[in-house]
Design a protein that fits this description.
Blueprint (H helix, E strand, L loop, with lengths): L4 H23 L19 E3 H12 L3 H23 L19 H10 L7 E2 L2 E2 L7 H4 L7 H4 L14 H17 L5 E3 H13 L2
Helix pairs in contact: 1-7, 2-8, 3-8
Length: 205
């Protein structure tokens, strides 16, 4: 169950909308190929809001002390790699820290991220998301109809072959518009950088 009062209702609503959309797709010609244990998309650059980062940070703080420290270190290491990646790119320097000016990440950065960082999401363990109930909206809304063997080569410049159904793209836009209205804090950024920032703010309290 999500910790945030907003996410407590928002996340289940998204899941319900996604389930209905997936059923529609599977009933037609476009079959969703995403399955549990297929973690290829977990190597991609994921942008999340401050509220979504807070959700994950609170999940970390609910863990036993030893595990909590382990998760904090995982987040720090992943955030450091993400910052190094952004600093090494001409158009990436605006994304090394959370920003309330939601500038779109250039497409070439998304394309280069999986190739150059080449590390999975810190919450991916044995090809499964251990924070699944608290995962952010990009993860909830990422569905494709592409065979997994094509997804496995995302980092080899074959992104054009990955098919996201129009109904999913439409739902992504709808949810994005809702987030703009529901979330009061307008800070956004790369997932690990965002979660690390929230963890730091929690530790200062």
């Amino acid at each position: 169950m999500p910790y945030s009062k907003t996410n407590k209702h928002f996340y289940p609503m998204i899941d319900q909308l996604m389930a209905g959309t997936i059923d529609e797709l599977n009933a037609g010609k476009s079959k969703v190929t995403c399955r549990s244990g297929c973690g290829y998309c977990c190597y991609l650059l994921v942008e999340i809001s401050w509220e979504e980062a807070s959700e994950l940070a609170h999940w970390i703080h609910k863990q036993p002390k030893a595990k909590r420290e382990e998760w904090i270190q995982r987040i720090k290491q992943h955030a450091a790699r993400a910052r190094k990646f952004f600093k090494s790119h001409k158009h990436g320097k605006n994304f090394v820290a959370p920003s309330d000016e939601h500038e779109d990440v250039p497409d070439d950065l998304f394309a280069d991220y999986a190739d150059e960082v080449n590390k999975p999401c810190p919450f991916l363990v044995k090809n499964k998301c251990v924070a699944y109930l608290h995962r952010p909206t990009p993860c909830r809304l990422h569905v494709v109809t592409t065979p997994p063997e094509i997804c496995s080569h995302c980092h080899e410049d074959e992104e054009q072959d990955i098919k996201v159904p129009r109904k999913i793209v439409s739902l992504q836009k709808t949810v994005g518009d809702l987030m703009d209205k529901l979330y009061k804090d307008q800070r956004w950024g790369q997932m690990s950088i965002m979660v690390e920032s929230v963890l730091k703010s929690i530790s200062k309290k």
